[in-house]
Design a protein that fits this description.
The complex is a heterodimer of chains A (116) and B (114). Chain A has 116 residues and is mostly beta strands. Helices cover 0% and strands 56% of the residues of chain A. Chain A has strands at 4-7, 10-13, 19-25, 31-38, 42-51, 54-57, 64-70, 73-78, 87-94, 106-107, 111-115. In chain A, strands 2, 4, 5, 6, 9, 10 and 11 form a seven-stranded mixed β-sheet that branches. Chain A starts with a strand and ends with a strand. Chain B has 114 residues and is an all-beta fold. Helices cover 0% and strands 52% of the residues of chain B. Chain B has no helices and twelve strands. In chain B, strands 2, 5, 6, 10, 11 and 12 form a six-stranded mixed β-sheet that branches. Chain B has a four-stranded antiparallel β-sheet with strand order 3-9-8-7, with no helix packed on it. In chain B, strands 1-4 form a two-stranded antiparallel ribbon. Chain B is globular, with a radius of gyration of 14 Å. Classes of the chains: A mainly beta (116), B mainly beta (114).
């Protein structure tokens, strides 16, 4: 099955460390997204990318950076992790061609990140 | 800006009970509306959608009707099962501004007990 995968699934790190979360997809979708999920806050968009050369900030991009290495790969980096970046991180994809005006999104299983 | 408001949880129901999870929205354009479901330990997956006023989305016994006059998209199921225990997110996709940004609600946790 075409899928969205995230690595690692769980990560514990210390304040000040650089962390990279990776996302790969076999769906052939052009658009990719990074969200974080916090209890009571729902999902908030960190960055999104419509293709390899098009990367955009979302609503909470401070402290994060991304890299779109290929159409199928989209990585999220925390340059210097801090405890309030402890959260569940999701990668998602969508397809401009088949998603029409709906922008239906397909999510990976998530990465649980804990910053001590 | 756009926003989605859904009822706070957790919602606890007995098996075979009727479920309603309320969702209202504000949007600048003419949004599409979604319900996503997140089972424990998994990512979100689309449950149902409606793309214009009065449309009814349905899937797996769940239904929601796009009510433009009340800006609502309430999720309903006539008889819940233990396997429906999950977190449910209401969301909208608004094409105004040239990009269909998706705005999610905060999620409602549903627990169904036998």
């Amino acid at each position: 099955d075409a899928d969205v995968t995230q690595t690692p699934r769980n990560r514990i790190t210390k304040t000040g460390k650089r962390i990279m979360l990776e996302c790969s997809q076999t769906k052939g979708h052009d658009r990719m997204y990074w969200y974080r999920q916090d209890p009571g806050l729902g999902l908030r968009l960190i960055y999104y990318s419509f293709d390899v050369k098009d990367i955009n900030k979302g609503e909470i991009s401070d402290g994060y950076s991304v890299s779109r290495q290929a159409q199928a790969k989209f990585s999220l980096s925390l340059e210097s992790a801090i405890p309030n970046q402890t959260a569940l991180y999701f990668c998602a994809t969508s397809d401009r061609r088949t998603g029409g005006s709906y922008n239906e999104q397909f999510f990976g299983p998530g990465t649980r990140l804990t910053v001590l | 800006g756009n926003s989605v408001t859904q009822m706070e949880g957790p919602v606890t129901l007995s098996e075979e009970a009727f479920l309603t999870i309320n969702c209202t929205y504000t949007a600048t354009g003419y949004p599409s509306l979604f319900w996503y479901v997140q089972y424990p330990g998994e990512g979100l997956q689309l449950l149902l959608k409606a793309t214009k006023a009065d449309d009814k989305g349905s899937n797996k016994g769940f239904e929601a009707t796009y009510r433009k006059e009340t800006t609502s998209f309430h999720l309903e199921k006539g008889s819940v099962q233990v396997s429906d225990s999950a977190v449910y997110f209401c969301a909208l996709s608004d094409p105004s501004g040239g990009y269909q940004k998706v705005t999610f609600g905060t999620g409602t946790k549903l627990q169904v007990i036998p």
